[in-house]
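Methods — Computational structure assignment.
A single polypeptide chain was analysed. Its primary sequence is given first, followed by the predicted tertiary structure written as structure tokens.
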Amino acid sequence: MASISIPQMAGNDEKISRTVLKEQKRLFRFIRDRVPQDADAEDILQDVFYQFVNTSLSEPIEQAAAWLFKVATNRITDWYRKKKPQAFSAFTSNDEEEDDTPLGPEFRLFDPDASPELQYIRSLVWEGLEEALAELPEEQRQVFVMHELEDKSFKEIAEITGSSVNTLLSRKRYAVLFLRERLQDLYTDLLTY
């Protein structure tokens, strides 16, 4: 396990350093038990501590260990979502009304062996997504595209845009909620296709 680099901090910020040093090994083991590679676990750990430091500098975190493990769990979930092919339903599910209609492998967006019909459906999906993205506010569109389509981490996006990770997380959340609602009609149309 690589050690986490912590910037030199003074005063109250020493508490952040102590928390990182205290929880680093335990949190790494927790993450490593849930992902297949050490390198992936280290990346997730680095992202968790990056978010912890940035959040701690702007607002106090009462239960730091619980916060760290919750964020780690969320990062692990995000990591798995990125690693496997996404069904179209994953992009358009509605939180309030779950549709239990399973979609088969014929609805995978990135299937390289797609038939002409599936290629047409894929083109409809991308066209709908492009139109919906164009309706988003620029900042939301930017973070969604960078994170989901360009596979950049929130840390990388923060460095590029100069926005905090928490701000980026919020922008992405609003973008995803909008896109789910906006693409629901397309999803419904494709199910009746």
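Note: The longest helix spans residues 165-191.
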